[in-house]
Amino acid sequence: MEFHTFSNEIVFFDLETNVPNKTGQHFHILEFGAIIVCPRTLEEVESFTTLIQPKDLSVASLRSSRSDGITRDKVADAPSFEDVAEKIYGLLNGRIWAGHNIRRFDCVRIKEAFAEIGKAAPEPSGIIDSLGLLSDKFGKRAGNMKMASLAAYFGLGVQKHRSLDDVRMNLEVLKHCATVLFLESTLPNQLEGKWQSSSKIMTRSRSSYQTAQRAMPYSKGSLVKMTQNVKNLLSKAQGNQALQSLIKHSHSLLR
């Protein structure tokens, strides 16, 4: 495989795998999804997704509790990892890798999959793991900081556990977090903690539903309503052009 350098390009990616339930059983990639984005605007430049047939079909579940979940029938006719390895290599190699919990999971699975077919694995020019980044910068406002919890925190819907959908959800979560942090850093005394109130939200794990207490930044997960709250807070400074630009920017981040 040829080596190309795209050191300033960001590729968000996500893997769906089986869940090992036997001693000695390994993870097998069942789906790969990736989006290359412009680092300046986060606009989508290219996307790719594919189901992947594992060597042992029995590792894929016969049924899924999700309406669009991955089942054995769905991957039975999918290409093998070796069939799509060159495409995946071309998307990942030399770019900045981004995703949620990718350092501990997705990066490891990619290296394992390429080693299994005897080919060199792609190498990143850098890694952005949104789990570590948001845990550090955004704090534990969304509880365990899993993607499902973050999505529920911002009212973005239920995580589908399908690669391309989860990548797009990851991007939206980052945009929402960036907007909140941007506003708070600009007017920390007025905004930090003002939007946090106790609220029950529903999060979903692979095996069960659970209700948990979360600190919500605004009542219904609406960034529009959050921005209106900011306008009210700044009503005495209507003539301040810099503050009006700030409010306009909070909308532009999510376009």
Draw up the topology in text.
Blueprint (H helix, E strand, L loop, with lengths): L9 E8 L11 E9 L6 E8 L20 H5 L4 H12 L3 E4 L2 H15 L9 E4 H8 L9 H7 L9 H24 L1 H4 L5 E8 L4 E8 L6 H11 L7 H12 L3
Parallel strand pairs: 1-4, 4-5
Antiparallel strand pairs: 1-2, 2-3, 6-7
Helix pairs in contact: 6-9
Concise overview:
With 255 residues, this protein is an alpha/beta fold.
Characterization of this structure:
The chain is α/β, with parallel strands linked by helices and 255 residues long. It has nine helices and seven strands, in the order βββααβαβααααββαα. It has helices at 72-76, 81-92, 102-116, 130-137, 147-153, 163-186, 188-191, 223-233, 241-252, and strands spanning 10-17, 29-37, 44-51, 96-99, 126-129, 197-204, 209-216. The chain has a five-stranded mixed sheet, with helices on both faces. It has a two-stranded antiparallel ribbon with strand order 6-7. A hairpin with a 4-residue loop joins strand 6 and strand 7 (209-216). It is globular. The two termini are 36 Å apart. The model is unreliable at 197-222 and 249-255 (pLDDT under 50). It holds the Pfam family RNase_T. It comes from Brassica rapa subsp. trilocularis. Residues 9-183 form the Exonuclease domain. This is Exonuclease domain-containing protein. InterPro entries: Ribonucl_H, RNaseH-like_sf, RNaseH_sf.
Spell out the helices and strands N to C. EEEHHEHEHHHHEEHH
Backbone structural class: alpha/beta
- The helix tally amounts to 9
How much helix is in the residues?
Answer: 25-40%
Low-confidence stretches: 197-222, 249-255
Instruction: Indicate the mean pLDDT.
Output: 80
Strand-residue proportion: 15-25%
Alpha-carbon Rg, integer? 20 Å
Distance between the termini: 36 Å
How many E strands? 7
Shape: globular
Question: If strands are numbered along the chain, what order do they take across the biggest sheet?
Answer: 3-2-1-4-5
What about the largest sheet? 5 strands, mixed
